Amino acid sequence: xxxxxxKVDVVTVGVGWTGGIVAAECAKEGLKVVGLERGxxxxxxxxxxxxxxxxxxxxxELMQDxxxxxxxxxxxxDQKALPMRQMGSFLLGExxxxxxxxxxxxxxxxxxxxxxIKTMTDEKYGANKLPPEYTIQDWGITYDELEPYFDRFExxxxxxxEDKNPFAGKRSSDYPTPPMKKTPILKKFxxxxxxxxxxxxxxxxxxxxEAYENPDGQQINACQYCGFCERFGCEYGAxxxxxxxxxxxxxxxxNYEIKFNSNVVEIMKEGDRVxxxxxxxxxxxEEFIQPAEVVVLTSYMLNNAKLLMxxxxxxxYDPETGRGTLGKNYGxxxxxxxxxxxxxxxxxxMGAGALGxxxxxxxxxxxxxxxxxxxHGASLSITQTGNRPILxxxxxxxxxxxxxxxxxxSIENYLKSLSIGGQGASMPHRDNYLSLDSTYKDIYxxxxxxxxxxxxxxxxxxxxxxxxxxxxxxQEMGAKTxxxxxxxxxxxxxxxxxxxxxxxxxxGAEPETSVVNNYLQHWDMENxxxxxxxxxxxxxxxxxxxxxxALAYRCAEGxxxxxxxxxxxx
Length: 570
Hints:
Blueprint: E1 2-4, E2 8-13, H1 17-28, E3 33-36, H2 53-58, E4 71-74, E5 82-83, H3 99-102, H4 112-115, H5 117-125, H6 143-157, H7 184-195, E6 201-202, E7 212-213, E8 219-220, H8 246-252, E9 256-259, E10 262-270, E11 273-281, E12 287-297, H9 301-310, E13 337-341, E14 356-359, E15 378-383, H10 404-413, E16 417-424, E17 433-441, E18 447-452, H11 457-476, E19 481-484, E20 528-530, H12 545-564
Parallel strand pairs: 1-12, 2-3, 2-12, 3-9, 4-18, 12-20
Antiparallel strand pairs: 4-5, 6-14, 7-8, 10-11, 11-12, 13-16, 13-19, 14-15, 15-16, 17-18
Helix pairs in contact: 1-8, 1-12, 6-12
């Protein structure tokens, strides 16, 4: 038996950054909002004993239960996709705050080039810079149009940083708080990159350099540099996350309710409008329908795409014909870099998730690609995130991977090794996409999402080029042994690489090439909004969270205008 609940103005599917931002903004305007979160409630008070590497970083305490729902994966269309049985390449958050609880806190604005990548690439290098199987396209919005929303998110989150990146888009105001501490390790990177003619700057951080009260009156504390950020919640309330910012702001209005253990399996619809969502209580397996005037998909991008697919909203992408947009332009991230082994010992165990320095000299179109067989690039950073003992075993080349020699080398080099990492942009390709699996289903009887993805020639060329630049920097830093990033071949779903999945519900200027418009409103259903990294037409050279946060504020503005102006977004 299905229980139909009272209708509300807005229902969000997921309560992380996007769900929290939409809820806070709509609730402040008097709209009644319900947030459906399939995980449990949690907050700062639950993380008092969070410094447990095995429980949180190895056994994934804060992550999705893959025995209930997962994805299937294959490299090519002619392969059979198989379920991802345990967390590997990426970590899917679950519970209040979602991935915004266990993130590192590295907070970026995508470059102006990213939003108009097709236009700018064609103008500079010609329309044939990449072969036609690369499906790059503009986002339907410019950096300048999105800048006020970037500013809004950074002030909500209290981001710590410095406006010293010569390649960044123009800012309407400075960072809310100063950059984090510049440690001896970061100074070593700063000196080397400066000597090589590059422009280093402190990484924008949601691990705050000082206590801060945001415009909504929420308090965020100062980072203690404990080194437990990624895969962990913050027991100090110093790593900005939804449950200490936008969620309490929404609750304070009296117009917001969260229903936990609520897993949405279908978007309900009549004609060209959605009417609400159907969900299961994950504890009792009771079934409910939550009617709403506006439905907003604010869960992780893989789930947003899956819900549209199983609800048969939008035209599925067909890689044979190129028709359809739902599932198109899935993108991951390319990770060039280099490691170095030194003679001196360094303090690598203290740190924070976004304690780092970066150069953008090889990101976006900040360098000439005329004689290169790829476009875009990567930010290159050295981060001091806290090397924990279980998962940190740096060893020089040719060291055995187990036994006495391995143990000796691991102990010897634990305090003597550093890495420079690149976050490389993944360009969309005709054969990289999301769809529904025809064989496997989740615990609720819903088909699993299927991922078809492999690295491309563009990815391999960019990885090689940027890894060589990283090795040059590491050499300049004084490493006695430099190990450049190994060439990439086929993508594998293991081991962990990055949680920065994008695409599948891309935004754009017209329905023929995108799923949603630049207010994140679905082209086919005017009262349905879809917001997250799935809106990215390609992946960039940064973490996605800052750009996702900006899009969420843009989306919230559209929902409020739609609700109050008789369907008009402006």
